[in-house]
Amino acid sequence: MSLRLEDVWVRVLQGVSLEVSGGVVAILGRNGSGKTTLLRVITGLLKPDRGRVEAPGRVGASWQNPYFSFHRQTVLEELEEVAGDRGYAAEVLESYGIGDLAYRSPFTLSMGQARLLSILLATLWGPELVVVDEPTSGLGPGERSMVSRLLAGLGTTIVFATHDLDFALEVADRVVVLDRGRVVLDLPSLEAFYGDELYRLGFPRPLAVEVGLALGRVVRSVSC
Ligand SMILES: Nc1ncnc2c1ncn2[C@@H]1O[C@H](COP(=O)(O)OP(=O)(O)O)[C@@H](O)[C@H]1O
Ligand SMILES: [Mg+2]
Questions:
Q1: Domain 1-58+127-224: CATH class, spelled out
Q2: Which end of the chain is more exposed for a tag (fewer CB within 10 A), N or C?
Q3: CATH 3.40.50.300 occupies which residues in the chain?
Q4: 104-118 pLDDT, tens per residue?
Q5: For residue 38, which atom of ligand 1 is closest to its CA?
């Protein structure tokens, strides 16, 4: 898997260069910094005005409104369509503790359940790269930890965009910070969160980092 953006200019993006060869990458930045635009470039939905994009052939995507991913009568049919096998689809649902949703209409799911399903749909057909926009927006704490477990356990290369720093610390190996369409920081996530460059850019320290600093060790999550 290799993703390479070279000096990409389009809309708000101003000369973005980025290489990803694996792992879980969080794109951080305030509202309007260009995160969604960058994901749209990566998936090929948006062509750069200038610059080059080399992306893998198979890219799965889960967008901010998960309900836009759905078009079938039931959750199981949605999953079967991408997984190619009904039995496997049912097993996947069971493994996330949501087997009871199999025969529900996907349009009646809670935001968290819908997000989980939309990420599974982006993933189960075997893409080389999965992009997820704002995985935690609109989720409660229980739903949030389910989505974090899902993203951390996929084993596929993931690029996700978020303004949720706590979530990025919990899930990402690497963070890339966008500010007004430019990459202003690109570091392994523990270096970013336990160093000071991220905070010099004005981001608040996640609670887990405060706890980690007080205990003198790396803490990535304070949720139970
Ligand atoms: N289709 C579009 N045409 C023109 N400008 C857009 C379009 N979509 C987004 N923008 C602008 O680009 C900027 C970045 O948007 P976006 O990538 O959605 O940021 P983020 O996801 O970081 O909040 C915003 O100022 C937004 O108004
Ligand atoms: Mg966005």
A1: alpha beta
A2: C
A3: 1-58+127-224
A4: 999 999 999 999 999
A5: 17
